[in-house]
Amino acid sequence: MFQIKSGWLYSDDINIRKVPVDRFGKRPEGTKISLIVIHCISLPPRQFGGPYVDDIFKGTLDPNAHPYFKEVAHLEVSTHLFINRQGVITQYVSFLDRAWHAGRSSYNGHKECNDYSIGIELEGCDDLEYTIEQYSTLKEVISVLKENYPDIGNNIAGHNEVAPGRKTDPGKFFDWSQIR
Fold first, then answer.
1. pTM of the model
2. Which position among 29, 112, 121, 147 bears the catalytic label?
3. Which helix (DSSP H) or strand (DSSP E) does residue 157 occupy?
4. With the C-alpha atoms ordered 2, 3, 8, 13, is the resulting torsion angle positive or negative?
5. For this structure, is 121 an active site residue?
6. FRET label pair with 49: which of 37, 39, 120, 123, CA 20 to 30 Å apart?
7. Tens-place pLDDT, residues 125-158
8. What is the pLDDT of residues 67-107, one digit of tens each?
9. Degrees to nearest 5, angle at CA 58 with 120 and 40
């Protein structure tokens, strides 16, 4: 169903939105992709749809569009993929590049997860269930990522696991049995 070409996800069957951003860096020389980090995002919190997720990753989020945005509009963040509530994928950063999704982080004793991971944001919040469509898409994406980047193996973690005490997503309602 999915394939990866030059770090970008493609499909003959479904449309994958491409919204390239300039908020990324090069991975350190010789770094192998060996981790997937699962996140969640909704802007404003607990509200779905609209342009705001694109805007935060592009760096164009208007701090005056919603009171909450004053807290987050200045953040320099990005992700590789975003999966909305209907299972539609948007890719912002090539898998070959380093997206800015995990921040200060560590996995199995290896610091700076952004260097060697792929970030996937699910449209949601810590205290709501995710949709069947999201899990279905996520499973397919994980499969193609593991096929193309075999060092991932079974290394799939929540943001809360790589940045404990600082982050809580994807939250207690994320059903790990759907993907592990």
1. 0.98
2. 121
3. strand 156-158
4. negative
5. yes
6. 37
7. 999 999 999 999 999 999 999 999 999 999 999 9
8. 999 999 999 999 999 999 999 999 999 999 999 999 999 99
9. 30
